[in-house]
Amino acid sequence: MTIPPTNPVPRAAAGQLSAPSAWNVANALTVLRLVLVPLFVWLLLRDAGASDGNRLLATAAFVVAIVTDRFDGDIARRWNMVTNFGKIADPIADKALTGAAFIGLSILGDLPWWVTIVVMVREWGVTALRFWVIRHGVMPASRGGKLKTVLQAIALGLYLLPWHSVAVVHWTAIVFMAAAVIVTIITGLDYVGRALRLRAAAKRPLP
Q1: 11 or 186: whose pLDDT is higher?
Q2: Keyword Transmembrane helix, does the record have it (predicted)?
């Protein structure tokens, strides 16, 4: 006679305990964003940025990629699709997209290089800080960091448009880019302070 196992784990419960597969919708959106980056760069720089059609297509690719960034994280958290691949690939895709936009616009002469350099130093500096303190804790994105992302996306979208030289669009783009740079610097300094406090708290002896 076969004795049934004690307290068998239901299949449903066992499935809930298993790690989510990397093959899911959220990660697919992240990969799509990565794939769109070289396409976006090619469209932006083609014909030295002089073609209105290519600029519109580049803007469309950028907007689609930004939209995937908005939804992939929400989908992953809501449907338990958070994976190690997503944690690594998502921020890489974000920085690759915005970095390509800043550098491409500077190459075309539409955006001063100092703006691109300031933003790139901040973005990769914060990434380095996160790895620097990862043994002591995780620095989640702050509200200021999320505002920075929104401002950058709007400003870049306006600069990408083929009629960005039109007065209304031009000055609107400048205002949003100025706000994005200011928030980028402020949040960068805030992350430095948070990283230092996190390391100091981790090294503080327990009572």
Answers
A1: 186
A2: yes
Q: Comparing C-alpha atoms, which of 37, 186, 36 is closest to residue 102? A: 37
CA 76 to chain centre: 15
In terms of Cα–Cα distance, which of 159, 177, 178 is closest to 169?
159
Cβ contacts of residue 23 below 8 Å, gap of 6+?
A: none
pTM of whole model > 0.85? no
Pick from 109, 112, 115, 98: which is nearest to 154 by CA? 98
**pLDDT tens profile 19-72:** 666 677 777 888 888 999 999 999 999 988 889 999 999 999 999 998 887 776
- Distance (Å, rounded) from C-alpha 42 to C-alpha 62? 12
Query: Which amino acid is residue 102, in one-letter code?
Result: F
